[in-house]
Amino acid sequence: MAAIAPPRPPADRPTAGARPAGRGASGGGVLNVFSHAFLIVWAVLVVLPLLWAVLQSVRTDREILTDPWGLPTSLQWDNFVRAWSTSNIGDYFLSTLIVVCGGVFFTMLLGSMAAYVLARYPFPGNRFIYYLFVAGLTVPIFLALIPLFFVVRNSVGLNTYHGLILVYVGYSLPFTVFFLHSFFRTLPTAVAESAAVDGAGHTRIFFQVMLPMAKPGLISVGIFNLVGQWNQFVLPQVLMQKQSGFDADRSVLAQGLVALAIQQGYRSDWSALFAGMTIAMLPILVVYVIFQRQVQTGLTGATLK
């Protein structure tokens, strides 16, 4: 007995859900070419100035002025030594490290605690407090400079590390609470309930259960806060001013680089200026390269949630 072959669908009939392969495919190809070209141009605009500044940091002043786009004939590492010691970049680096470490630590601690309570505990005024944090994102920093100057001068004093740390924390808290609020809202409730059944209190549930589960979001917003506070110039310029000749200079890196640029304009020590710029850029670049996957994971999670 001969086997009966199964019927085949007509070749010219499109299957359900299939998209026509004509105009849509060509449109997608054009869009891909445009997006890739845009990304290449964007990468060149970002990477080229960075590489150029790093190359100038290991050249002599004569090479920089006579051939700005050339390569170094020999690596001048003493530019970094001169920038670190003679131009006081080391002192500015230490001041920045103290302020940013304190600012990021307290921002993440207080921001995660506030976001967790607002996301997981319903109480009267919950939404009002949350929208107050969100409203903080809309306040331009330039409008708050004058009242902020008088508040800091009359409370903790100008040119102090703890005063600038408090301002950094207040400046970064709205975005931190807004970013982490969505993470804590979508964490599974069953895990917290299981921990509570096992006898864990609210503090232990937060620090040992919920906080590790929000690790991608914490790393992402931590990197954003680190970059923002490291590159901050306006707030230190207003609040870190020497009050007398006996007051210590606690300027941060952004202030130090501006002072160095003005100073080197008369000395023509451009190689030390580029070395100082490289010292200021490298720590943030290294941190971002190390945690780039966690940042992408956190941003993707926040978008999907």
Give the helix/strand layout.
Elements: H1 23-56, H2 61-66, H3 78-86, H4 89-120, H5 126-135, H6 145-155, H7 161-186, H8 189-197, H9 202-213, H10 215-230, H11 234-239, H12 253-267, H13 270-290, H14 292-304
Helix pairs in contact: 3-13, 4-7, 4-10, 4-12, 5-7, 7-10, 8-9, 10-14, 12-13
Folded structure, characterized:
It is built from 14 helices and no strands. By secondary structure, it is an all-alpha fold. It has helices spanning 23-56, 61-66, 78-86, 89-120, 126-135, 145-155, 161-186, 189-197, 202-213, 215-230, 234-239, 253-267, 270-290, 292-304. The longest helix has 34 residues, at 23-56.
Keywords:
305 residues, mainly alpha, 14 helices, disordered N terminus
Query: Structural class of the secondary elements?
Result: mainly alpha
Count of DSSP H/I helices: 14
Number of DSSP E strands: 0
Low-pLDDT segments: 1-7, 14-18
**Global Rg:** 27 Å
Average predicted confidence as pLDDT: 84
Shape: globular
Q: Could you estimate the helical fraction of the residues in percent? A: over 70%
Run of helices and strands:
HHHHHHHHHHHHHH
Report on the biggest sheet: none
Into which percentage range does the β-strand content fall?
under 5%
Give the end-to-end Cα distance, rounded to a whole number of Å. 60 Å
Summarize the structure.
The protein is mainly α and 305 residues long. It is 72% helix and 0% strand.
